[in-house]
Amino acid sequence: MEKRKIVIQGVEGCFHHLAANAYYGEDVEIIPAGNFATLVELIQDESVCDGGIMAIENSIAGSILQNYGLLQDSGLVIEGEIFLRIKQNLMALPGQKIEDLKEVHSHPMAIHQCRAFFHDYPDIKLVEMEDTALSAKNVRDNQLMGVGAIAGDYPAELYGLEIIAEEIESIKDNQTRFFLLKRQKDVVPNGGYNKASLYFSTSHKAGSLSYILDCFAKENINLSKIQSLPIPGINWQYFFHVDLEFQGPRQFRDALDKISAYTKGMKVLGTYNKGIVIT
């Protein structure tokens, strides 16, 4: 049986890779993308992959705002979600100590999650890179003395680096939420979904957003996320991305019927089952 081909942002061993394996319950074949815009383009191409995975928010660093905009314009569908417990380690070539390090490289989100750790090491320069695992790979490939990387356990093992300090993130219950994305025609209908993601803008009627939120409450729907995004080309007007949790599809459909007259450009990005946390 052929492995599932899944596009990820990053290289082998990164958190996207771990999340993909955890969600599908198997070792997937990864298709690396250097950035999130490229990730979306690759997922759209049916000759390349079966789907992809995209980080959307972190419990410490917050939302990855550009990804909400990419999703709106992509035509892709959210098939599911997964929450991955993120453990960030400081690693370097074997024999190196933290006192030897002049720079530490990693993804901006990882640096943000671990910035408090480096308050005690003001002489270490934190350098933003495209990916956590790629930072570790670069240290190994280029035999960079005096340079460390922030990444998970797997890259240290994969690239032969030594962990100098374990779990250096500032909050230990650090989680990243990922969306599993597919092309519309490849999505298998899920009749028992209990979560949905959608976006809309509101009409110019006073209290429109308040009315919409009240409709969700009256339908006993939990608003687990709301994120505002500027509408390009229209100053000071916004789209709202919302994630909703409910008991069953009928609740969700009834709520959509009630709010439709108060929204503009509403689009459901996906209906799926609430994700689990992988530790």
UniProtKB/TrEMBL annotation:
<feature type="domain" description="Prephenate dehydratase">
    <location>
        <begin position="5"/>
        <end position="183"/>
    </location>
</feature>
<dbReference type="GO" id="GO:0004664">
    <property type="term" value="F:prephenate dehydratase activity"/>
</dbReference>
<dbReference type="Pfam" id="PF00800">
    <property type="entry name" value="PDT"/>
</dbReference>
<dbReference type="InterPro" id="IPR045865">
    <property type="entry name" value="ACT-like_dom_sf"/>
</dbReference>
<dbReference type="InterPro" id="IPR001086">
    <property type="entry name" value="Preph_deHydtase"/>
</dbReference>
<keyword id="KW-0028">Amino-acid biosynthesis</keyword>
<keyword id="KW-0057">Aromatic amino acid biosynthesis</keyword>
<comment type="pathway">
    <text>Amino-acid biosynthesis; L-phenylalanine biosynthesis; phenylpyruvate from prephenate: step 1/1.</text>
</comment>
<keyword id="KW-0456">Lyase</keyword>
<dbReference type="InterPro" id="IPR002912">
    <property type="entry name" value="ACT_dom"/>
</dbReference>
<dbReference type="GO" id="GO:0009094">
    <property type="term" value="P:L-phenylalanine biosynthetic process"/>
</dbReference>
<feature type="domain" description="ACT">
    <location>
        <begin position="197"/>
        <end position="273"/>
    </location>
</feature>
<keyword id="KW-0584">Phenylalanine biosynthesis</keyword>
<protein>
    <recommendedName>
        <fullName>prephenate dehydratase</fullName>
        <ecNumber>4.2.1.51</ecNumber>
    </recommendedName>
</protein>
<dbReference type="GO" id="GO:0005737">
    <property type="term" value="C:cytoplasm"/>
</dbReference>
